[in-house]
Structures are given as structure tokens and as C-alpha cells.
Design brief:
Length: 111
């Protein structure tokens, strides 16, 4: 028995996408980055603080404040990590509020 091949006349997913992806000559291309530089610098700053803050706190308090008690120095370093994390969340929330206010202000100016 021979099998029959079914030939479909419908367009597949690649054939349906007939858009022209090359911009026209008069159209400027958008080369702005997806994430603003200020956001990247803020993230790098908090990353550095998350690394250096707790480690620095541990070694700073190990012999000076707690006189060799590594348990208390480790607890202080963990507390410092939580402080950096809370600061990052607060900064992110304020940034989100400022973006919302800016869009509302822009919408009010448009009216």
C-alpha cells in the first residue's frame, strides 16, 4: 500500500509573517538600550554593597567589637546583608513610584 502525501495550501507560520523588517530610508532606527544606564549602575552599586558590606562587617567586628567571637560577627554580617537588601527594595519601590508619577503627569499635560 502506498501512503498518500497531504499537501496543504494554508500558509505556515513562517509564510504568514510577510512584514518588511528592514526600516525605510527616512525612518530612524532606535538604538537606545533596553535598560537605562542609571538602572545598571544602581544594580552594580547594590551588588558591590551586598558583597563588600557583609564581608567587611564580619572582619571589622570579629576582632574589634566581639573579640574573636565569630558567631556574633557572622550574625552582624547577616544583619548587614538584610539591611542592604531592604535598602534595595526601598530604592526600587521609590523608582517605581517616580515612573508612575511621571506617566500620570505626562497624561495630565496631554489633556
Amino acid at each position: 500500500m502506498a501512503s498518500r502525501r497531504i499537501v496543504s495550501t494554508d500558509k505556515n507560520l513562517l509564510d504568514k509573517d510577510d512584514r518588511n523588517i528592514t526600516p525605510s530610508v527616512s525612518e530612524k532606527s532606535n538604538i537606545t538600550p533596553a535598560v537605562p544606564a542609571a538602572v545598571i549602575f544602581k544594580l552594580l552599586g547594590f551588588t558591590l554593597a551586598m558583597i563588600a558590606g557583609p564581608i567587611g562587617t564580619y572582619f571589622l567586628t570579629l576582632n574589634t567589637v566581639f573579640r574573636g567571637n565569630s558567631t556574633w560577627a557572622g550574625a552582624t554580617a547577616a544583619f548587614m546583608a538584610n539591611i542592604v537588601l531592604i535598602a534595595y527594595v526601598i530604592v526600587a519601590m521609590k523608582e517605581d513610584e517616580s515612573e508612575k508619577l511621571a506617566t500620570e503627569e505626562k497624561a495630565n499635560k496631554g489633556k
